[in-house]
Every structure is written in C-alpha cells, then in structure tokens.
Amino acid sequence: MAINTSQLLDAVGTLTDKQSMRVTLKGSTKGAIVAGSGTFLGGMLAGPIGLLIGGTLGGLAAYAMSNDFKPVSHIIKHELTVQEQERLKERILGALAEFGSRDLVVILPLLMGNASAQQAVLSTVISFLTKDMRMQIID
C-alpha cells in the first residue's frame, strides 16, 4: 500500500509542533549584525555608557526584526516543494524501516506512541532541513 505523503507529513508536523521546533530564516545573522553595530556605534560615540545604550537599542532593533522564525510544521507543509516533500517522506520511511512497516496504518500510531520512533523521525527532519535545505533549527 502506498503511503500518502500529505498524511505522513501532517503527522510529522504534529510531532514537531509538540516539540516547539522552529526554523530561522537568516534572521539570526541579521539580528547579530544589528545588535553588534548598535553596541559598536554607541561605544564609539559615548564611551562605556554608549556601549550600554547602543547594545540595548541594537538588541531591541534586532528583536523587532526577528519575525523570520517559523514552525517546522509550516515549513514542511507549505514551503517545501512536492519533490522536497517526497524526499523527506522517503528519509522518514528509511528512519522508520527498523520498526518493520511501510504501511501508514501502522506507522501513524507508532509515530505518535513510540518515543524511539519519534526521536528517529525528529532527527531525520532536523538533518533534512539543516543539511539539504540549509535552514537553522531552534527549539
């Protein structure tokens, strides 16, 4: 029986939501540059007190720009192409191969109730998103 990609990825999305896994889309680097620049400029203009003020203002500006964090479930369901979703599905099925089933009726309850199956899937998703998609996972 063929496994429905959408149903499997919905279950994986539910699992990643339980773990509060999010992806940052280049926001961390931009935020670090803004916060560091604010600290540097404050220090150059006003000395030690400028470091405090510049760091605070730079940090607040970086925080205001940090809306680039998205849940992993959103990335999986809405931002991966069909081919990327299929590749992820195959990797997940490969990670679950040790549990001896390629039938969705068996995989879904296994995924929701077995901690080692959950860990295998989460590791696979993290690896796929960080190595193949070049995203940064935060949790």
- Low-confidence sequence ranges: none
Overall geometry comes to elongated
Helix content: over 70%
SS-based class = mainly alpha
Radius of gyration, taken over Cα atoms and rounded to an integer in Å = 20 Å
Number of helices: 6
What string, H for helix and E for strand, traces the elements in order? Answer: HEHEHHHHE
User: What is the strand content?
Assistant: 5-15%
How are the strands of the largest sheet arranged? 2-1-3
Main sheet makeup:
3 strands, antiparallel
The total beta strand count reads 3
Head-to-tail CA distance between termini: 35 Å
- Kindly state the mean pLDDT as a whole number? 86
Description of the molecule:
The protein is mainly alpha-helical. It has helices spanning 5-18, 27-64, 72-79, 82-95, 104-113, 115-132, and strands at residues 22-24, 69-71, 136-138. The longest helix is centred in the N-terminal third of the chain and has 38 residues, at 27-64. The chain is elongated, with a radius of gyration of 20 Å.
Question: How would the blueprint of this fold be written?
Answer:
Layout: H1 5-18, E1 22-24, H2 27-64, E2 69-71, H3 72-79, H4 82-95, H5 104-113, H6 115-132, E3 136-138
Antiparallel strand pairs: 1-2, 1-3
Features:
three-stranded antiparallel sheet
Give the gist of this structure.
The chain has 139 residues and is mainly α. The chain is built from six helices and three strands, in the order H-E-H-E-H-H-H-H-E.
